[in-house]
Design a protein that fits this description.
Largest sheet: 6 strands, antiparallel
Radius of gyration: 21 Å
Helix content: 25-40%
CATH class of the largest domain: Alpha Beta
CATH superfamily of the largest domain: ATP-grasp fold, B domain
Bound molecules: adenosine monophosphate, glycine
CATH topology of the largest domain: D-amino Acid Aminotransferase, Chain A, domain 1
Number of strands: 26
Number of domains: 4
CATH architecture of the largest domain: 2-Layer Sandwich
Number of helices: 15
Shape: globular
Length: 442
């Protein structure tokens, strides 16, 4: 099949988190989709009669290929970062399967921060000043002799936990010790990126890419820290919201400094990428600049996949059919696509285990009451044990609610999350609160 989708197709989504549940939920609404498989899926995808869980792990490339070929799956959508870094797209494409996602080499923009920073530098995409180091001694020397070098990042995939934003050289050297000497991140810490500290506000921009063209989705903002007020350890994400006022005020600059250079690098053959390119953006200035300096949209990092929980915040707002958009990324026909959004804002609040990210929750019964028609429940760490829904992870559920304003969406989300419960359930109480303040003050 080339070009537009002509008849209903069977789809397989790879992954088992909240992001994959939200993708399956949206794809199931497409008039062009037939069966939706999810491997391995979770309790939420098991409960949805439009979705069929397949008991295959994301690392089981042979099993996934075999299942897809045997069941004539027409299209495979990859959710998480690890299989992309391990080359799942190359593997499945070599078997003749059609896949949404970048090849291993293209996904290097996510799995190597050193590669990603070099790409940005070479393609005029603003990013924090940086240095790459491969051993503790030279990294320590660099940190001690450069007053700007205060952010330390493990090069490889580290579940969002390999980044240390430090206030002093000593703190930065401690971070280098954790990475190089303690080996906390394994091979992902064989190389570090040392960066200048930036100050400003962040947003996530998910950009569909078809090898030639880019199509950004509506901007969103996640909340990575575990506790209110952005305190505590980094997590996979405790909540998200969309749209983001900050994006509207810097839209032109983001086009000029990010989207245009990406398209140019695709055209020049410096980048070969199909799938989702997710930019973590900080609109701000460097630590050494005066607070009056004009704000710049700096790219903090690239991911090569949909964000989690950004996807859970975005899918209920997406008016367009998701399936032709993803399909167009693999057929190089994105230029003909448009993406439409509901006017409503959305807020997604994650219900996690009390001690997440240190520990997760397993085997606790979950109760869910009717959430009403403005709220949606996406499962993350859940499983179906017979007929009983039970916890099975650190982040357990994501509740997304819509509202005419971000304030209303927030109110709806917190009202809805009261309808779900399990032992030791916890959530942040300030998701999207800052955005509400911004919107009320303008
Ligand atoms: P990353 O995984 O590179 O996006 O970094 C994770 C988080 O660390 C970001 O969301 C920021 O909050 C913070 N961070 C990363 N790089 C910098 C930097 N250069 N300056 C300040 N904060 C940063
Ligand atoms: N929410 C950040 C991520 O998906 O990496």
């Amino acid at each position: 099949m080339v070009g537009a989708i002509e008849s209903k197709i069977d789809i397989m989504v790879i992954g088992g988190g909240g992001r994959e549940h939200a993708l399956c939920w949206k794809l199931a609404q497409s008039p062009l989709s037939k069966t939706i498989y999810c491997a391995p899926g979770n309790g939420g995808t098991a409960l949805d009669e439009r979705i069929t869980n397949v008991n295959l792990q994301v690392s089981d490339f042979d099993g996934i290929a075999e299942f897809a070929l045997k069941n004539s799956v027409d299209f495979i959508v990859i959710g998480p970062d690890n299989p992309l870094a391990d080359g799942i797209v190359d593997f499945l494409e070599a078997k003749g399967l059609k896949v949404f996602g970048p090849t291993k080499e293209a996904a290097k923009l996510e799995w190597s921060k050193a590669h990603s920073k070099t790409f940005m530098q070479q393609n005029d995409i603003p990013t924090a000043r940086f240095e790459v180091s491969h051993d503790f001694e030279s990294a320590e020397k660099f940190v001690r002799s450069n007053v700007w070098a205060r952010v330390i990042k493990a090069d490889g995939l580290a579940l969002g936990k390999g980044v240390f934003v430090c206030d002093s050289a000593d703190e930065a050297v401690d971070a280098l010790g954790i990475i190089f000497k303690d080996g906390k991140f394994g091979d992902a810490g064989n190389t570090v990126v040392i960066e200048e500290k930036l100050i400003g506000d962040e947003l996530s921009l998910l950009i569909l890419v078809d090898g030639k063209n880019v199509l950004p989705l509506s901007a969103c903002q996640d909340h990575k820290r575990r506790y209110d007020g952005d305190k505590g350890p980094n997590t996979g994400g405790m909540g998200a919201y969309s749209p983001v006022r900050l994006y509207d005020t810097h839209k032109d600059a983001i086009k000029k400094h990010l989207l245009d250079p990406i398209e140019k690098s695709l055209a020049d053959g410096k980048l070969s990428f199909k799938g989702m390119l997710f930019a973590g953006i900080l609109v701000g200035r460097t630590e050494s600049e005066e607070p009056t300096t004009q704000l710049t949209p700096y790219v903090l990092e690239f991911n090569a996949r949909f964000g989690d929980p950004e996807t859970q915040a975005l899918m209920p707002r997406l008016k367009s059919d998701l399936l032709p958009l993803l399909w167009a990324c693999t057929t190089g026909t994105l230029a003909a696509e448009k993406v439409e959004w509901q006017n409503d804002a959305s807020v997604c609040v994650v219900a996690s285990a009390e001690n997440y990210p240190e520990t997760s929750s397993k085997g606790k019964a979950i109760t869910v009451e009717d959430l009403g028609d403005r709220a949606f429940l996406f499962h993350a760490g859940t499983q179906l044990d017979g007929d009983v829904l039970k916890t099975n992870g650190g982040r357990v559920l994501c509740v997304t609610a819509l509202g005419e304003t971000i304030e209303k969406a927030r109110e709806n989300a917190y009202k809805a999350i009261k309808k779900v419960s399990f032992d030791d359930m916890a959530c942040r109480s300030d998701i999207a609160l800052r955005e509400v303040g911004r919107c009320l003050s303008t």
